[in-house]
Amino acid sequence: MAQKRKVTATVISQKQIGEQIYDLWLETKLAKNAQPGQFVAVYPHGESMLLPRPISICEADKEKNRLRLVYRVAGKGTAEFSTCKAGDRLEVLGVLGNGFPVDKAKGKRAFLMGGGIGIPPILELAKAMDEKKQILLGYRNKDLFLEEDLAEYGDVYVATEDGSVGTRGNVMDIIKAYALHAEVIMACGPMPMLRAVKKYAEQNGIEAYISLEERMACGVGACLGCVCRTTEVDAHSHVHNARICTEGPVFEAGEVDL
Amino acid sequence: MNTEVKIAGVTFKNPVMTASGTFGSGMEYSDFVDLNRLGAVVTKGVANVPWEGNPTPRVAEVYGGMLNAIGLQNPGIDVFMERDLEFLKNYDTNVIVNVCGKTVEDYLEVVERLSDTSVSMLEINVSCPNVKEGAIAFGQKADSLYDITSQIKKKAKQPVIMKLSPNVTDITEMAKAAEAAGADALSMINTITGMKIDIHRKKFVLANKTGGMSGPAVKPVAVRMVYQTAQAVKIPIIGMGGIGNAEDAIEFLLAGASAVAVGAMNFVNPYTTVEVVEGIEAYMKQYGIENVTELVGGVM
User: Fold this and answer.
1) Rounded to a whole number, what is the distance in Å from the CA of B253 to chain A's nearest CA?
2) ipTM of the complex
3) How many CA atoms does the CB half-sphere of B109 hold within 13 Å?
């Protein structure tokens, strides 16, 4: 595993691409080692805010040393990031965690599933996979983002909760609506969606890899803040807990108890 | 220039340590800092058997600090000795093991298991506010603190540090009880019990409802308690609470701490420990201080 570092990154550009959704490009050497599904932790400048905010990697341009982060403003820290302009500096810790196991999809028909702010890491994953991909995206409403970027790498299907675009419902409803099939699933999204993915995968005997999130402090496996329940005793913790920042954020669905 | 300090007969190359629970067993931060540069690595608390810890969310940010309610998740002493202690043997630094338990017997079992190891000191966790049994239950009443300290002292081969809770009426009474029972040193302070409520969901942010607060916002409380305790006892104090740079560390030394530990600020800046070591050296040079021990209790 590549060494983790805290570095100063320079903002190349930022724009708003949806309701509270921002698209940020950073120049940083961390891009060199970034794998799909990994994340970085970005530090707010405000001194009252101490902890870095974990944000998934949406794209990594290894040649130009650029990372693309697409995030939602969820509090004071991300609100501060959303005001960053080209030339601004951000402290970034990375690259962190274990990403999607791209090898496991070799030669298989795959579902890449993203829900809401779980969609961004699906882009770097889609770029990294040569196989035929069915990309299933779930949004709240017609305020879509990244669907055009993703369309370059596979067949995109959209669901919206209010039915304003595509299938009414969530990513699981897309599978039913189009009678889609896959041999492997890679997914990132809110917990109810991941629970549904896990259940679907188990019922249909499909391999599935899901990316989890939890409130984090250190981001490097020291504080044990961001654990998830595991079905078996975890090799590191020796209890039924795995560190999302270190063993995850991507887990084989059967390994975790949601 | 001499940065060495001695605590209970153990020599530390400098007075900078890690605060238990914020540094794993050093492995997680060895990507960032050279552990050889530290006075000691103080490990995450370990019990006689594995502990699952609390449900999530376990951490929350608060103004100038954070709350945690990890609940002392640990892999148990067997794994700890095979893996974590073995890893730390690769480094030229003191290892201080933080020991936790639900009953006095649990603590004694861990203490005995560590007796034939290269561990330099034991830090007894009688102050974690996030578990229902043990820990803080032993650290909030002077007589129970006296009792557990004397029982551990009877069994321990290494010098014993009692880690004190700030969640008491008068921390000097606890310090005096630990000293009277034979404690070799004190660590202070553990986290201050706090709470955060999400007003939009009308829910507690932490699954445990309460958590221990740490970070820069607690530093003035910790400095005050270290100062008061240094006036009340003769045994050395390892001071901690919001230390994020050398200036913070020097405040603790001047207040009467013989050494300091960096805790939550490791999360903010993973290089903090080594920066504190270097900053103390720069301060000593600036003021022509020959021995770092000259700073201890130096406030006038």
Assistant:
1) 24
2) 0.94
3) 14
